[in-house]
Amino acid sequence: MGDHHHGPAKGLSRWLFTTNHKDIGTMYLWFSFAMFILGGSFAMIIRAELFQPGMQLVDPLFFNQMTTLHGLVMVFGAIMPSFVGLANWMIPMMIGAPDMALPRMNNWSFWILPPAFLLLASTLFMEGGAPQAGWTFYAPLSTTYAPPSVTIFIFCIHVLGISSIMGSINIIATVMNLRAPGMTYMKMPLFVWTWLITAFLLVAVMPVLAGAVTMMLMDVHFGTSFFSAAGGGDPVLFQHVFWFFGHPEVYIIILPAFGVVSQIIPAFSRKPLFGYDSMVYATASIAFLSFIVWAHHMYTVGMPIAGELFFMYATMLIAVPTGVKVFNWISTMWRGALTFETPMLFSLGFLVLFTIGGFTGLMLSIAPADFQYHDSYFVVAHFHYVMVAGAVFSMTAAVYYWLPKWCGRMYNETMGKTHFWISFIGFNLTFFPQHFVGLAGMPRRIPDYALQFTDFNMMSSIGAFIYGSSQILFLYNVIATIVAGKPTSDEKVWDGAEGLEWTVPTPAPYHTFETPPKIDPVHAHS
Amino acid sequence: MFLRAKRLGALALGPVLMLVGLLCAGTAAAASKVNEVNMSPGATSVGQSIFDLHMTIFWICVIIGVLVFGVMFYSIYYHRKSRGVTPATFHESTKVEIAWTVVPFFILVAMAVPATSTLLEIYDFEDAEMDVLITGYQWKWKYEYLNETGDNVQFFSNLRTPQGEIYNTEEKGEHYLLEVDEPLVIPVDTKVRFLVTANDVIHAWWVPELAVKKDAIPGFINETWTHATEEGVYRGQCAELCGKDHGFMPIVVNVVSKEEYATWIGEKQAEAAEIKKLMAQSFTLDELMERGKGVYDRSCAACHGAGGEGGLGKPIAGSPIATGDLSGHLEVGINGVPGTAMQAFGGQLNDVDMAAVITYQRNAFGNNMGDMVQPIDVFNHKKG
């Protein structure tokens, strides 16, 4: 008996050698939260410096290191791993699989992450400082003009890429092979669908990023001139390659968030998701379009007008499937029986703020108008509406939603709601005024600004401190829940929740679905 | 629950209403740039077209937003469990789903029409009456007038805001960070074509009120243009992260009457002739040191430190180059160090300034070489 139903190993080796999807998911989630705090503290330094005009706290070079590391850590360290963690925990439980298909690779894809970020953070203490060319690291600022730490940075990107590709292969293999009998593709929960599509995106574009940084490495150390015009190369080539990765990347970040919200809104509306099929097709269309719009990040590089028009029209088209999603979520709520527990609040926050981010995205897609928006704070506001209020809010919603299932204890609802409202107010106070300063002409990535931008920057900084400190409340609430939350053993923690994960005991045992569940052939997806 | 729903509604609709309110307020108070909340139509017809396009799309988004959020808040209010509703069970409707795929598509087509025509307007480079070559340097702009009357006129435009204002030891002036030593001057009612490039990394030349933003890319020459219809001083900044002092390389454009422009370009040409004359002269050590300090503060201090202590660049104080062989020092100053951030200053400084700054570096910050460089030495070195 003991041989077949063993629990976790004891001590450190449980975590080091684990191949259990729940353990690995947990590690991913904690790691990404740690990175969220690290990247957040960089943001706090940025906002503190920008609190008033003049240079107060840091020098311009260090400021550039902060904007660069903030972006890199948040994108690659916080948001992406958090959704991989969620995928690890939830995908097997949602499709009735006993674990991920490739458990040893799963362990490996997590454990190469912490050393990579340790290395990246260590560049702060190197001579010449950390990378300082922005998270988009345009050549030649990131090659010929970069500090020596760029080599370490390139290595880190390679490691992160390998980790992401392994994680994605694992997800694809799991979804394709380990679905319980009867769990057809069109019965999978939407979270699984969005992750399947995301995983394909990752496998397609992470090697492109690896190619870009390898070319950088060659330029820096081996005398090539991929990105140096002086040697016959082309600095704009870097941007094309980078954004061929970079644009799908933003959908890599947001698609799983769509998946989460598509699970939570039906649960608290007590009504099935509206337009399941169209949700799947919309996700696939967005993924396809993401490959043919990359140069909308480069309207000002001097493309021929045919290029501008193509990328403008293709980008505008993304509004159609994205609109379908928003309409579907709202129709899901329509004539439901709504309650507003914390996960629902964060999902509604997502819905409203992501939609606003979508509107500004549509505005940015208009090439002639983008000549004024480009590289201004308007862009900063836009992508924080989709990255923070989109991805981070939905991730927060996911934690509140599944935490009781994970640990068998209920979080404190009042504290959760307080966390939401502080986050919501802090977030909007931070990023809404950035639309204004951007439209009025404030460029992004500057450590100091002209006097007319003072008031809005001050508001922005205050908002950032509020949003930042609300995360402490979140951390406290999660730890308090795990340690001393009110125990619950309801399989279905939420009365409106649907899906296989709510059929296993609470807290979810170390191994679930060792024998595949029976899938109700009529009752489709949740 | 009622209260909560209402609060949720108020706070989520808040941003949209705030935006609308502020945009309206902003148009009224457009005279003052402080706390401006919207794009400026600026001083060109292209700027006006872009502004109109921006506002059209903004209002379309507001209307869609009000409708979508309106439905959502209706649902949040009326379809709450606490009102004792029983949830419906519908989960698809082909008709509705087709409608909300097709209708947005046509709205997009309606947006694409004015967007395309504005873009065509911007891409019409024909009939420019004069050309200015703009080159981005870390961290300054160089302007060269390329048409016949502008021959010989070229200059650098550096940030004029003193370090004291930036580091909070002095009161900040009105145009803090948006002021330069020598602004670009162009005539009003003239189609001016800008050829934009860069010397080191990528920069972007952005003046919002002239509706121009173009990346300055080393090895490429981009084209853009403006046609200002109102005289005035227009201020902008570098828009593409270009290293340490990205935030400190502003752009100032004086749009003046055609007569004023003619006078100004005449003066600039006379100045250039004067420099040419100076290049044939010899100077005393004191003269070179005095001129050299000014050049050093403008062109070297950003990387090598105001006191020669180093920073992004190596220290000048005690440097083996500045205290070594004279021709080696000239070589580094004139041709730079390839593969590093040390630029070739031979094309940036005239021979007088180059001679002065090399002399200064060899005799300041505790370097005590006692030798000096004359413009003719620089000229000879350049010739090889």
TrEMBL record, chain A:
Classification via SUPFAM superfamilies: Cytochrome c oxidase subunit I-like
Q: How does it sit in the membrane?
A: Multi-pass membrane protein
Kindly tell me the pathway this chain contributes to: Energy metabolism; oxidative phosphorylation
Q: Where is the Cytochrome oxidase subunit I profile domain?
A: 15-520
Q: What is its EC number?
A: 7.1.1.9
In terms of superkingdom, the source organism counts as Bacteria
Which terms does the record give in the GO molecular function aspect?
A: cytochrome-c oxidase activity; heme binding; metal ion binding; oxidoreductase activity
Give its localization.
Cell membrane; Membrane
**Catalysed reactions listed for this entry:** 4 Fe(II)-[cytochrome c] + O2 + 8 H(+)(in) = 4 Fe(III)-[cytochrome c] + 2 H2O + 4 H(+)(out)
- Identify the enzyme class: translocase
Transmembrane region(s): 28-48, 68-89, 110-130, 150-178, 190-218, 250-268, 280-299, 305-324, 345-367, 379-403, 424-442, 462-484
Q: Of which family is this protein a member?
A: Belongs to the heme-copper respiratory oxidase family.
Q: By its UniProt entry, which NCBIfam families does this protein fall under?
A: CtaD_CoxA
Q: What is known about what this protein does?
A: Cytochrome c oxidase is the component of the respiratory chain that catalyzes the reduction of oxygen to water. Subunits 1-3 form the functional core of the enzyme complex. CO I is the catalytic subunit of the enzyme. Electrons originating in cytochrome c are transferred via the copper A center of subunit 2 and heme A of subunit 1 to the bimetallic center formed by heme A3 and copper B.
| Name listed for the protein in its UniProt record | Cytochrome c oxidase subunit 1
UniProtKB/TrEMBL annotation, chain B:
**Ranges that cross the membrane:** 54-77, 98-120
Q: A Pfam family in this protein?
A: COX2
Transmembrane among keywords: yes
EC code(s) of this entry: 7.1.1.9
Q: Does the keyword Methyltransferase apply?
A: no
Q: Show where the Cytochrome oxidase subunit II copper A binding domain sits.
A: 127-267
One GO term under biological process is: ATP synthesis coupled electron transport
Q: Which InterPro entries match?
A: CcO_II (IPR045187), CcO_II-like_C (IPR002429), Copper_CuA (IPR001505), Cupredoxin (IPR008972), Cyt_c-like_dom (IPR009056), Cyt_c-like_dom_sf (IPR036909), Cyt_c_oxidase_su2 (IPR014222), Cyt_c_oxidase_su2_TM_dom (IPR011759)
Q: Which reaction does it catalyse?
A: 4 Fe(II)-[cytochrome c] + O2 + 8 H(+)(in) = 4 Fe(III)-[cytochrome c] + 2 H2O + 4 H(+)(out)
The protein's predominant localisation is membrane
One GO CC term on file: plasma membrane
PROSITE patterns, per database record:
COX2 (PS00078), COX2_CUA (PS50857), COX2_TM (PS50999), CYTC (PS51007)
Q: Which UniProt keywords apply?
A: Copper, Electron transport, Heme, Iron, Membrane, Metal-binding, Oxidoreductase, Respiratory chain, Signal, Translocase, Transmembrane, Transmembrane helix, Transport
MF annotations from Gene Ontology: copper ion binding; cytochrome-c oxidase activity; heme binding; oxidoreductase activity
Domain of life of the source? Bacteria
Q: How does it sit in the membrane?
A: Multi-pass membrane protein
> What PANTHER family is this protein classified in?
CYTOCHROME C OXIDASE SUBUNIT 2 (PTHR22888:SF9), CYTOCHROME C OXIDASE, SUBUNIT II (PTHR22888)
Functional summary from the UniProt entry? Subunits I and II form the functional core of the enzyme complex. Electrons originating in cytochrome c are transferred via heme a and Cu(A) to the binuclear center formed by heme a3 and Cu(B).
* Record's protein name: Cytochrome c oxidase subunit 2
The opening ranks of the lineage are: Bacteria, Pseudomonadati, Pseudomonadota, Gammaproteobacteria, Cellvibrionales
Q: Give the encoding gene's name.
A: coxB
